[in-house]
Amino acid sequence: MANDAVPTVDPGLLDDLEARGLIHDTTDLDRLRSRLLEGPITVYVGFDPTAASLHVGNLIGLLTLRRFQDAGHKVISLAGGATGMVGDPSGRSSERNLLDDDGLAANLAGIVPQLRQFLRFEDDAAAAGVLPAKLLDNRAWTVGQPMLQFLRDIGKHVTVNQMLAKDSVKSRLDSTDGLTYTEFSYMLLQAMDFAWLYANEGCELQMGGSDQWGNIVTGCDLIRKIHGGSGFALTWPLLTKADGEKYGKTAGGETIWLSAEMMSPYRFYQAWIQVEDDELRKLLAQLTLLSITEIDEVMTEHDEAPHLRVGQRRLAHELTTIVHGPEATAAAVGASAAVFGAPVADLDAAALAVLADELPGGALDRDELMSTDGLITALVTVGAAKSRSEAGRLLDQNGISVNDEKAASDRVIGESDVLPGDFLILRRGRKQAFVLRTQGK
How many Cβ atoms sit within 10 Å of the Cβ of residue 73? Predict the structure, then answer.
């Protein structure tokens, strides 16, 4: 698409968001619908760098921006380099630990590539026929803001009564921890962001989770009072489980990070394989780019045979591909299948490497492995047996498998046993699997 070309907007965008359950509150839905039909609108979502990676709770924001971009609108992904130093009290029962400059820089270095990953910028946008996305950092217009000027230009337009009426403030005031002035000021900073983006980027719409409603509408008020303009607010429901708990952790309590360094693609994939049936349609609708028609088809197939977990597998596949890419997804799928009994002979080196990172194991010199008692040494090396005598007993009892084949007590490992990537899969019984990496030739 030429740089000066304007894409045709998709008139069904809001209907699609409603069908996905992604509209919780708006300032004026009918007026917003009319505005979207007039032509492209500029919209932003903010992401504070409170950790070195975004997590699954941020996915709705990232994907909703993508939906707006695909529908012909201009999107801004805002890194909260300034607001992240203060900490949003919304949804918090206590104050966040304040970030210093080094911590902020490290977190920004982690999340900025993730913010870029989900949207199309410049050349990618032109090839896709959409308007290019922008990535901005609110530190650019906040860090040099003198306090007295901030109080005169921003603070005078927002009454304390307004701020105290917001749910995010009231809930903290009623708590035993109270609310610090630093956190209290967060609402003004976010409102200033919206007003700045309105004036400098023509941004008319801010979106966020339902806990951001008070902050966003304060920004709308500020735009009206400072610029005499009109901004729109749209929030989606927080991503929660059936019991009301926020999605963001696995059943084992592990945070579902979007970074492969903080949560491997295999563990990420497994987190979605475990979701309950009654959560599937919502998660497919809100966390994937599948159309509603495709989602209905997946759910029909799933409901016909829930024990096959068709829905969970599709959800895990789509999400892992969105976050980590198709190659990582294929490796995670293969590794998961092997753990649960699929033939290891069908695995490629990438899937086996995933297993080596996720399962207990060890490394052994090739010559030693292929010696007369190499299998016994291997069992001790990977932790399948505590001692050589225990390894021998397990072999005598037919309790050991090598690459899915039961191993006799006199089993000798040969070159034909070595899998792609120089791996061996050893099993103790049905449920315990171990990965041995061979070394040397």
Answer: 23
